[in-house]
């Protein structure tokens, strides 16, 4: 594990820096990426700093990517934020640079890069970037940087509701508020849904399978998405909906992709579910993970495994 000082020293060495994050980015991926890029540009205006990856339509209000050419990678420092494993990096040219740095808060099951800083106690990667800035005399936390990082923290803590929220998280957020960040505007933007997404939330309660243990499953297949005129990105936005039910302890949502496979979203309010995700081409946090199921049979198998995890948790009285 490297220190903040070592990572900052590496940043200072390179004239061209490319910052990447994971595929299908959430607010923390975008916030930590844009926040880090902005603070580096402020401190070192002569450096060329690029943010790569594919845009997410529903989050363009927060950040958009830039075009990064093959030539840009030559001799560049590449920093990957908020991405636990290499297959999820949203630009598979990440190794084409001269040096690779990983900054993350997910369990470090797959270390990669020439330098890495991983803090699994952090609420978000955006919180880590805020700490990186705080450790340096050259990097300055400004209102613009704080805007991105606040959005990232709010996204990964569920507006400070999830267990990952700590006293330190609130202290960091307090610094952003002191700088005048429009926190209400960010919160309102994140809370915004389209009429189609609102209708899907209603459908979730109709199609949700709830086991007596408290495990639940919702399958959002291609037929349902066509019926509601939704794309996969819009369907992914309702992942937290089952958690509002008192009968549900842990749940998974299966969203069908264009190739017929299913993107699996796993969430929990107690039982650890990331080991289940790892067994099915995924991973993530103990209480929030993602995986892939090749077909409905695998979706059903994963639900059986989730039921056992929740049942064992209940029997232990944890």
From TrEMBL:
The DHHA1 domain, residue ranges: 227-310
Q: Which residues form the DDH domain?
A: 16-153
Q: Name one GO molecular function term.
A: nucleic acid binding
What's a Pfam family this protein contains?
A: DHH
User: What is the protein name stated in its UniProt record?
Assistant: Phosphoesterase, DHH family protein
Q: Which organism is it from?
A: Companilactobacillus paralimentarius DSM 13238 = JCM 10415
Source taxonomy: Bacteria, Bacillati, Bacillota, Bacilli, Lactobacillales
